[in-house]
Structure formats: C-alpha cells, structure tokens
Amino acid sequence: MKARTLLKAGTARLKASPAIDHWQPGREKIEAEILLIDINDGYEPEPTEQISKKKQRRFEEWIERRYTGEPIAHITGVTEFRGLDLIVEPGVFVPRDSSEWLAEQAVRRLRKRKHPVHVDLASGMGTIALAVAHEVPKAEVFGAELSDSGVKLARRNARHFKLHATFGAGDLFAPVPKRLRGKVHVITIHPPYVAKDELHDLPDEIKDWEPAHTLTDQSDDGLGLVRRTVHEAPDWLVKDGWLLMETDPDRARDVRKVMAAGGFRDVRSTKGGPIPITRVILGKRPR
C-alpha cells in the first residue's frame, strides 16, 4: 500500500474515535504522520512510496491503540519537547506541546541571572526542569514531584541526556533542599486544576490514561494547589524572583486573582508557544 493511502486511512480512523478530544483541526493527520514515520524507521516516506505489509500491519495496530485514547507517547515510547526526545512510560503524565510556553518563560528569566536557580513543582516526569537544564546549563535545577514513578522517569531522562537536574519525591516544596530557601529565581508549576466534580467531563484520552493526581487536587474549584503554592512560594524566592503558573484559559482569571491576593507583583497573563492557547500567569515575589 502507498504511504499516502495508509496515511489517509489512519487519519480517518482517528477522526472517528470517540475517545480522542478533537479540539485541534488537523491534529489527527499529524498524529497519523507521527506513527507512520516511527514505523518507517524514523523518516517520512514519500506519498507514493510503497509500505511493506509488515509495517502496514504495525501502523494499523498503532492506529487502533490511539483510537482507544492511548496517548501517542505511550505507543512510541518517546515524546519530543523543546528538542529533547524524552522517554515516556505509562503511569506518568504525558507532557503536552502547550507546556513549551511555560518552559520558554522560565528560560527567559533564568538566562540573565549570574547563578540561576530554578525549582519546578508538580514536575511529573520532569519535563520543564529538563528543558531548563538543557537550555540554561549553568542553572541549578530541582524538580519536585509527588509520585515516585515520575521522579524515577525524570532521573532516567536526566541521565540519558546528561543533564544537571535533581529530582525529589514529595508534596509541593517538601522535597526541595532547605538550602534553596530564599535563593530561587524562578518557580514553575503546571498544577492539576480540574475541579473534583469535573473529572468525569474530561475526554477519555485524558481521564482514562493520566494519573488522577495530575488532573485534580480534589478541591471544589481546582485551585487548591494554586493557593498553597502562592502561600508557600515567597519564602523560597529571591527578592525579585518569579512564580510562573500554567493553567487553561478558563481558569486564567481566577489564578491571577489568587496570585494578586497573595501579594505577588506585576501579575499578568501570557500566552504563546506552538499551541498558543495556554496561559502562563506570571508574578514577582511580594515585597
């Protein structure tokens, strides 16, 4: 079968999936292309190129797995994030392209520091921390994650890419070394912001495959961890240090209000990255 025929069939199958959140036009074709490239030894075949029956069967199997909502990264075992092909394992939150904007905002504020210090909270598999360590190699980077599996995967990726980033398991700031108190230039967090009663409304590809603690903090409004972070972060930041919080457009205003009420200065909402819908709320440490 020709590559373009296989790609067309795979795209149509993904478009028909009730488990996938079809929010981004053209995303199904992009995902089918990713799978086709992966089964084709890492290179994109020409539209008229004949795909072997063995590769065709593998592609069709992978399309069916994605049809059920299984994340692309679980199928291929890797995900690309700001130039890093990170190893991915089931049971750990799969990083999204949209989070690249959070990493970019952190990198911007760390590069200008003489001895930059970065702490990433709710770090998952360490995606933001690893990106910062890669792009600001002089920075001291620490990632704090609630789950042991996330920390193990973050450390595995750090070793794989020879990145200088440290990770610890624990709740919010609990695993962060005490010597960093008052010395952090940038704190980042992509907190779970889904209200506990809204979990059932999430697409199957999220609620059936992502760990529950990465989706909700079990608060009624989804802002429980946001409030805790705003309350605790000032003790860890330098005088002109920044807190960067990723959220979705629907909660951006509420997160801004929480940060402003907590005394943070110059609080504002930004959006950008490859999928410019993410909001990163920025604020400087209270005086």
Number of separate strands: 9
Termini separation (Å)? 65 Å
Helix proportion range: 25-40%
Task: Quickly count the domains.
Answer: 2
Largest sheet: 7 strands, mixed
Structural shape: globular
Order of helices and strands: HHHHEEHEHEHEEHHEHEE
* Strand arrangement across the biggest beta sheet: 5-4-3-6-7-9-8
Low-confidence stretches: none
pLDDT average, as an integer? 95
Quote the CATH topology of the largest domain: Rossmann fold
- What oligomeric state do the depicted chains represent? single chain
Main CATH class of the largest domain: Alpha Beta
- The CATH homologous superfamily name of the largest domain equals Vaccinia Virus protein VP39
Residues in β-strands, percent: 15-25%
Number of helices: 10
Short description:
By secondary structure, the chain is α/β, with parallel strands linked by helices. The protein is built from ten helices and nine strands.
Structure description:
There is one protein chain. The protein is α/β, with parallel strands linked by helices and 287 residues long. The chain has two domains: 67 residues, no CATH class; 194 residues, Vaccinia Virus protein VP39 (Rossmann fold, 3-Layer(aba) Sandwich), CATH 3.40.50. Helix content is 36%, strand content 19%. It contains ten helices and nine strands. Strands 5-4-3-6-7-9-8 form a seven-stranded mixed sheet, with helices on both faces. α2 runs antiparallel to α3.
